[in-house]
Amino acid sequence: MSLVDQIQVIDADSHLHEPPDLWTARMSARKWGESSIPHVVRDDRSGNDVWVMGGLPGWPSGGGAQAGWKEWFPAHPPRFEDADRAASDPTERLRWMDEHGIYAQLLYSNVALFRSAELSNSSSMNEELLLECLRVYNDFQTEWAAAAPGRFIPLTQIPFWNLEASVAEVLRCAENGHRGVVMSQEPAAYGAPPLIDPHWDRLWAVAQELGLPVNFHILTGSSAGGDGSADLPPEDDALLVASTVGFIAGNLRTLSHLMVAGVCDRFPRLNFVTVESGIGWIPFFLESMDWQWQNNAATRGRELLPSELFKRQCYGCFWFEEGAARAAIDLVGADNFMFETDFPHPTSLSPGEATIAQSPRAHIEKFADLPEAHLRQILHGNAARIYHL
């Protein structure tokens, strides 16, 4: 009997691929203006259908849904309709999950996640329109998750550029069954206060009181992700490898700031999750943080080391790693790590013609020699505990 037949695996990072009419079908063109509402148009130059958000065309409607696609990344389905239906249809998603040994999935967005920061700075979208777009997306996710309660876990996308609206949206969505908060890893890049600023304390307090983890997904900070990708020639697709690996830098920086600046100290029951960033780097990160901490006059004498703060309230998620994940589990323990598939992203655990990825079922089986208690924590227990599943 395989591991996925013994343990109800919770996927800590999957993505809900937005249909082209998500906003146009739910928002009044008379009130907002037809061209202002996020919509999809045909780009004759590229041959792709692309999203237009805040007057900014670019994100392909089939982008971010390369699971099972016939061509190697960075190729992607040219249209929403060409993508695997499991990326957007709840019935097909359940079929995919059952086939690959996944019991439940935490749901992140695609275009709504990776374009929300840019939208906050768009001069062509007023704040009321921005807020309405996020409310509509969150309601869409609530409806989508209702197709399989307990198996689809909605998370709240917040308008981080407006604190009052963010708190209100967290409260509203919590009543609708959302189990976590999705926060920009670098709000200061868009004119909001940095995460260590007391400005955010009310949001942290509400999330802590409601038991909602704060989730930092990669690529939700500055457009360069803090990885230097802005310096890479855009015509060289091979360099995407370097920039993709560098995306974790943003979350590394975010976690270190939250630990050092006292946010974890002030909110000891609030959980922070670094998403789609792997875990192999975490042992070095914690050992380095402790070393610098103990050699700094400003932090000597404080009660807990960064590694102790991490173990108390921080979590990482992994998917393709094997050796690095084993090392992290051996050095840090099993209580702070969760498994993810990243479905339906280009390098997710999604078998197909143009990928080396195995099924999640097969990848999980590689860890069968680990202690059963460790496996149950990583594959189910940690996510079930912090998201109250």
Automatic annotation (TrEMBL):
Q: Which domain of life is it from?
A: Bacteria
Keywords of this entry: Lyase
Q: Its Gene Ontology biological processes? A: secondary metabolic process
Task: Give the Pfam families listed for this entry.
Answer: Amidohydro_2
A GO term from the CC aspect: cytoplasm
GO MF terms held by the record:
carboxy-lyase activity; hydrolase activity
UniProt keyword Cell inner membrane, yes or no: no
Please name the InterPro entries in this protein's record.
ACMSD, Amidohydro-rel, Metal_Hydrolase
Q: Can you give the residue ranges of the Amidohydrolase-related domain?
A: 13-389
PANTHER family, A to Z: 2-AMINO-3-CARBOXYLMUCONATE-6-SEMIALDEHYDE DECARBOXYLASE, ISO-OROTATE DECARBOXYLASE (EUROFUNG)
| Name the UniProt record assigns to this protein | Amidohydrolase
* Taxonomic source organism: Pseudonocardia halophobica
Recall the taxonomic lineage recorded for the source organism: Bacteria, Bacillati, Actinomycetota, Actinomycetes, Pseudonocardiales
